[in-house]
Amino acid sequence: MRRNRNVKIVATLGPATSSHEAIKQLYIAGVDVFRLNMSHGTHEDIRARHDVIRKVEAEVGRPVCILADLQGPKLRVGTFANGPVMLAAGDSFRVDLDKKAGSKDRVCLPHVEIFKALEKGTRLLVNDGKIVLRVTSFSDDHADCVVEVGGEISDRKGVNVPDVVLSLDALSPKDREDLEFACELGVEWLGLSFVQKVSDIESARALAKSRARILTKVEKPSAVKNFTDILNASDGIMVARGDLGVEMPLQSIPSIQKSLIRQCRNVGKPVIVATQMLESMISAPIPTRAEVSDVATAIYEGADAVMLSAESAVGQYPNEAVRTMDDIAKSVESDGTFRAVIEASRTKGRSDVSHAIAVAAREIAETTALKAICCFTTSGTTAYVVARERPRVPVIALTPSRNTARTLSLVWGLHCVQTGHVDQFDEAVLEAVNAAKTDGFAVTGETVVVTAGIPFNQAGSTNIIRVAAVD
Fold first, then answer.
1. Considering 3, 5, 24, 35, which one is annotated as catalytic?
2. 460 pLDDT exceeds 70?
3. From the centroid of its chain, how far is CA 107?
4. Active-site residue flag, 368
5. Which helix (H) or strand (E) segment is 137 a member of?
6. Catalytic residue among 217, 269, 371, 390
7. pTM for the whole thing?
8. Which residue ranges form the domains of the chain, and what is each CATH number?
9. What digits encode the pLDDT tens for the residues 288-341?
10. Catalytic annotation on 451?
11. Catalytic: which of 76, 134, 197, 323?
């Protein structure tokens, strides 16, 4: 099955989409990557969904990518003795380590790391930022606050601390168990939450042991501030606008999104835009006009993928949401403005042979009648470099590695094909020509351009290019 668009669609599975029929319908509707949310469901639930995805993959005969999204540490207040409490602006309120049930004056905040990091004036954002507490004084076991934005506070509401870096590992004990479980299952990507510093990514990579690639979720101000280092340490990025929109001013999110996408494109690493993209479709069969524009904006900016969360996990219209994203993508990518925007934002790659070959392949394909760029790759490096160029013609990524084919299914524009083992470039050309013809990219008499690295099985060695006729 060939997608007639370049941007990829990620869909989260959940109670509404756990059956074989539901998952297959999502794939047919347009899903390229399935997200397993490790925050919800037991390992048995996750395994069952994973197994169904692999059955669907076998049935459709196309590589399907799986992203396991780790929960990250959750900061929450304790409980209240007499139910929810209403806080008004100007009230005094204390958070502390005392495990006693809370009252209108105080509540337990059982995270010593928060108290160690506090400064006078630090904000504590409760319940997704609906309540704002400003620290006026503090010690190692409590903080006195003034309520800046009031509201109802109740048991176990989440807390965000955007103004300081917490001495918390991005991987909680649960995350470490989930990471090992997901790697044993054989997922291609691990979504890493609560990243504040490069060492968080390094810890996850050490545990993954090359069994899965690390997709860092940017959802903390410190990750935005240190994004260059975060990006260099990651295999991919998710612009996680949910928590990011709580911890940073909402009006800053569009410019942050644009900047992060541009930086990811510059280095050729995939980037997903996520959260509330078609939120109204959780309960409605059509989206709002603003949501359509939001999805379109991410596509115009050159994001590799756009993501559905609750829309596909618990929503009433999961297939409609996927088809809506598919329709938006096709419409945007057929607009002449899209190509103008993409090409105007293209930057020069590294000064090495691999990037020069990728640029040459794009220019040859776009200035002649070539039908596709065929990248033969073992590790995926060749395909990443070509996709970075955002060419006008389709890109076929050919690889003998099933894992590589699945992994690359997240990347912009790549139509992934698993081939047999190849030792010679002539064999790679034959595989490329056959794939282009079989999958409907070219017919007899037309031509494609083929890139590869010699010797084979050596990452980053792209050094050969050939124009080949389809027999």
1. 35
2. no
3. 35
4. no
5. strand 131-138
6. 217
7. 0.94
8. 8-72+170-335 (3.20.20.60), 85-160 (2.40.33.10), 353-469 (3.40.1380.20)
9. 999 999 999 999 999 999 999 999 999 999 999 999 999 999 999 999 999 999
10. no
11. 76
